[in-house]
Design goal:
The protein is built from ten helices and ten strands. By secondary structure, it is α+β, with helices and mostly antiparallel strands. The protein has two domains: about 5-95 and about 245-255, Orthogonal Bundle (434 Repressor (Amino-terminal Domain)); about 100-240, no CATH class. The strands form three sheets. It has a five-stranded mixed β-sheet. The chain has a three-stranded antiparallel β-sheet with strand order 2-1-3. The model is unreliable at about 70-90 (pLDDT under 50).
Amino acid sequence: MKKFTPNGEAIKQLRVNLDRLSTQKEMANEVGVSIRMLRLIENENASIPMTTVDRLAKALGVHRERIIYSSGPPATVTDPSLSATVEAIFDDEDKLVPRYDWDIGRATMDDGELFKSARTSQDISFAVETALTEETSAYAEELYSILNGVTWSSRGVLTDIDPLDEIEQRRRIRQLLVLLKGNDVWVYHTSILRRLPERHTVAPDDEPCRYQTRMVIALGPPGEYGEETLRVEVDNGQPFILLAWRKLTANAKGGADGR
């Protein structure tokens, strides 16, 4: 699995300025890692998978680009090879994140992971990035139908899923994953937090917005050189401005001082 080098110092600074999740214990529980692992992330930039990067970014309320340096093995903040990346992270320029952007989908054969992601998402975006036969198209349609059926938009936020139904659905998801992979069709997935209402221009500062989680599924070819990720198109709901690092930390400190 591809690993990414986190900016431990930035993660720690953002965490301690939070009203909630400010302690290592709280943040570790929220992100789903051990306290020891979080310490390694913050103090030694221990490499982590993109799923952990996304959970950290969501908990800290920032874009993932603010808390990672690069892909590859762990690297220290003093590594000269990272100087350009460090400057990019700590520059003074805001960045426009377009509505139609891209994200990294990760290959999976975990039925539980897909089911949990679907049941905690508002809806699903489904993309096909490889040629399908009549057989694999049928598998893909069934997979989409099962996952879409457990999203909030299909079943309602307050409607529970019967445990027996979950067992049966997960069993079939697992079978479909095996059938698709056996035909050289891999299932990649990620989740994004969409800003609503949908629009094509940056919203005025006084316009209220809400957020919804979208599960993104892509059917793609096997990794040619063993890669387990795929670039997938995403719809962020609306474009937004990613604040420059110094502005972001200034806002965080301002909020902490105003408590």
